[in-house]
Amino acid sequence: MDTKSKIVIILFILIVAFLLRFYKITEVPAELGTDGVVQAYNAFSILHTGKDRYGEQFPILFRLHNLSGSYQPPLYTYLTAIPIAIFGNTVFSAYFVSIISGTLLALISFILVMLLFDIKGTFILASIAAFTLAIIPWSIFYSRLIVEANLGVAVFAFSLILFLSSLKRLYLFPLACLTLGLSTYAYYSEQVIAVLFLPIFLLLFRKKLLTKYFSFSGKNKWIYLGLALFAVSLLLHIKTLETGAFTRRFNQVSYVSNQFVGNSYLALGQSFISQYLSYYNPRNLFFATESKLGRFAPELGVFYSWMIIPFLIGLVYLIKNYKTTSAKFLALLFIITPIPAGVTADLFYPLRTLSFLWVVTVIIGIGIYQVYLCLKPILLKLLIFVFLILYSLFSLYISYFILFKHEFRHHFGYPTQKLLSELNSYQNKQIMLDSTRDSGLGIRIAFLTNYDPKDMQNQLKSQLATPYYTSAPNYNETYKMGNIEVRPIDWSYNCKKDMLFVGDTLAISEKQIQEYNLKLEFEIKDILENILLSAYSNNRQGC
Amino acid sequence: MTMLKMNKKLVSGILILSFINLWVNKIFQINLFISLLLLLLSFLLFFALSAKYSKYAQILTIIVLLSLSSSLLINHLDQRIFTRSIIDSISINQRHEYYAKELGKIYRNRVGLYYFSQLRPGFTKLNQNLADLIDFSQYFNNYSVLFLPFFIVGFFYDLLKSLKFPLVYLICVLFTSMFIKSGDRFNILLLFPFINLCVFLGLVKFLPWIQKAK
């Protein structure tokens, strides 16, 4: 195959990957989720003021306002400042880093497989692995959410390219270590994976990387430089280590301090083994859907069910070739990448183990290639692969672009853009939006209306009940942006002039409508005519 | 493909393994006749790998499996695959609006309506049943988790050596069991012989002295 054809194939795969991640991005998911829009607004704030929405200058961890109070790793937020600078405060710019991470992961997978394998047909193998990644449900799903984990796996995977390249070009080892260190600022799982990966990689490939142990001559200087750079890259974490903010997320999601698990090492060991092995359970990988996967799309798993067959074939291939660099490298990743998720309490939570899912995807690609080699007639190959791709994309479309869009819209908050367009007609009223069941409503409005970050900082900083970096961040926040106030509805405001109260059916009940003699102004409904939000004006009766 | 030279140790080994595991006691409590047939299938599947008895063992396996599968399907067929419950109907009606809006004419025709209201829910149920079968953690709650590493070794040994008959058995059994209601206790029974065999192959791999003839 000539170079031009190869470039066309790679470009085709990247275009497919990008389109699947970009198509209808403003409609599916239905809204910018709370965690995601916080990152977007923080990026907007950092871009214009160098401070986050609380006024903290260039934070190492971004304080998150949600039901339990937590922190977000910083890299996604800082990178999001770039598309916001270019495209402004749009839904697309909020998702941009995730979309590009998911798209580039297809390219990274291609390059990684090209480096790992040196067999006849490596280009086809790499293309299959990349295309598999391009159409795989978990990658599409998380590339269409504002999640740091997607960026984390992309940065981690990129560091693996550098590590593999360093086996032949040792001067790349320091850069690989630096990139690995950078991945620890992308997501929490990578903090654990990076620390585990580096020493084991050195051990596995010590004959290629090191001359005599502990000597500073020859090859070793690159190794020591790399290790030093990795250590230096982790220094920023130290700033938050003693405050409790660094381990806040771990304490929230882990069973380690859970009294029901028990404090004995045996109990903890049993819990870890059970959680860790759940990530290898073929049921969870290939058949479990939606409710068992932490709000995944209905009737869709992290992989298409048929992929269990190429996965097993890929595993068998690697076992047969266990002495090769590719098998050792993939085995290392296959074993260590579920470890961070193994210490958390949720049974099989895909978001915490995207690196592992990516390794499984590469193995599936290897399996598909083995099937490709076994099938002789070209027409048969074409028929089978076209059928599987079309069937998979059809399943994806139904489950994600239709069912997930409508059945999971309530997970992403109120229809804010529709609400804002309705509220445009009420500039003369004081508007109170109930945020009891949508804690992200205020920040979503702030982001979409480009609300002044400095004013936001003044508002939110005064509401901080604990230091910025703490083990117990508070989370009850109210927002005031012009004539709009976002908070749990306070009915004492009914006595004020020209009020507009907006909330769901739980926030404004029939009894309250009658008691305060409220007048219905507008309703926002879903496709089934269920009322999502109602807006009522007051007439100050009984004040 | 055969790989085992039969000797007294191997035969004793499969006998002991078949009786000492926790699962077989539970199966005996469910139904004595089925449990005896399953034990017979375990031995037949094992003998199907021998050089001397494979042909007869394979034929007998097919006969016993067909009989047992027919009996299970007749008595424990999952009707939910073919009929819709009230909850299913509510969900289908709700989703009708979504599909009509998003798919337009692709949905609003006879084929589309039939597929989404009848075929697709049926396939989803089959998928759920298959998911429950593939959940190996439930087998090792029955079998004892200590045998899990041996099962994994034995299973991949199966694949590595391309032991066709056990793999064909597995595929047939999965296909049959998909039509049996999950959570029924009966849906996972047909997998017992296969799991037994894989555990035994794993043990043989780890403990090669079992395979050495006197």
How would you describe this structure to a colleague?
The complex is a heterodimer of chains A (543) and B (214). Chain A is globular and about 80 Å long. The mean pLDDT of chain A is 90. Chain A is built from 24 helices and 8 strands. Chain A has 543 residues and is of the alpha/beta class. Chain A starts with a helix and ends in a 6-residue tail after the last strand. Chain A has a 6-stranded mixed beta sheet with strand order 4-5-3-6-8-7. A two-stranded antiparallel ribbon of chain A has the order 1-2. Chain B has 214 residues and is an all-alpha fold. In chain B, helix 1 packs across helix 10 (192-206), helix 3 packs across helix 10 and helix 8 crosses helix 10 (192-206). Chain B starts with 7 loop residues before the first helix and ends in an 8-residue tail after the last helix. The mean pLDDT of chain B is 86. The chains are: A alpha/beta (543), B mainly alpha (214). At the A-B interface, helix 15, helix 16 and helix 20 of A face helix 5, helix 6 and helix 8 of B.
Observed structural traits:
heterodimer, A: 543 residues, alpha/beta, six-stranded mixed β-sheet, two-stranded antiparallel ribbon, 24 helices, 8 strands, globular, B: 214 residues, mainly alpha, 72% helix, 0% strand
The tally of beta strands of chain B, per DSSP, is 0
The biggest beta sheet of chain A reads: 6 strands, mixed
Oligomer: heterodimer
- The SS-based structural class of chain A is alpha/beta
Low-confidence stretches of chain B: none
General form of chain A? globular
